[in-house]
Amino acid sequence: MSFRKIPDEAFGIKPVVRLRDIDAVVHNYLLFRKRADETRSICAAVLKAEVHGLQMKDVGPALYKAGARFFFVAELFEAISLREVIPADDAGIFTLAGILEGEENYFKKYRITPCVNCLEQLARWNRYCGTDGRDSVIIHLDTHMNRLGLLDDEVDILAKNFADYTSNLKVEFY
Q1: Which of 23, 44, 36, 55 is nearest to 95 (CA)?
Q2: How far apart are CA 104 and CA 10, in angstroms?
């Protein structure tokens, strides 16, 4: 297999300049939240990838202080880091990458809600919560944009067996 060679000049020689403007992030969050409030919707902050250089440890608390109570990250390790800087019980922290086998106790310990991406994750989290106490879940549906989420056939199975798959869970969003 051969690949097209991309010349170094295509990338330029100037460094990327990133401005650390957490106030702008908070301002934008407040604008979105105002719109969401007008439609009785929920506005959440997405802090994955260290907020593109701004640092979750700085942005998360600033958004919490501004009223944000729902935070999405990609991975469990990000969620744990965020929980350490936002320990408040009213802060919901959600992982978009789902829940891998063996991670269940960390989700419980740090009060993190998984966005399950397949029926296997949902069934496993439901079983775990059946023995360790009821907990929350988000059911992530495939939007056909090459992202994670339950596929159409899984959605059909879930619709027919919803009570069985969620008997020990509180479904937050789906």
Answers
A1: 44
A2: 45
**Residue 119: its H or E element:** helix 119-132
Complete DSSP assignment for 29-80:
HHHHHHHHHHTT----EE--HHHHHT-HHHHHHHHHHTT--EEEESSHHHHH
Q: Are 135 and 104 in contact (CB under 8 A)?
A: no
Q: Which of 72, 69, 18, 70 is CA-nearest to residue 49?
A: 72
How far is 15 from 82, CA to CA, in rounded Å? 29
pTM: 0.83
**In contact, 39 and 45? CB cutoff 8 Å:** no
At 52, the pLDDT band (50, 70, 90 cuts) reads confident
- The position carrying tokens 């990609």 is 74
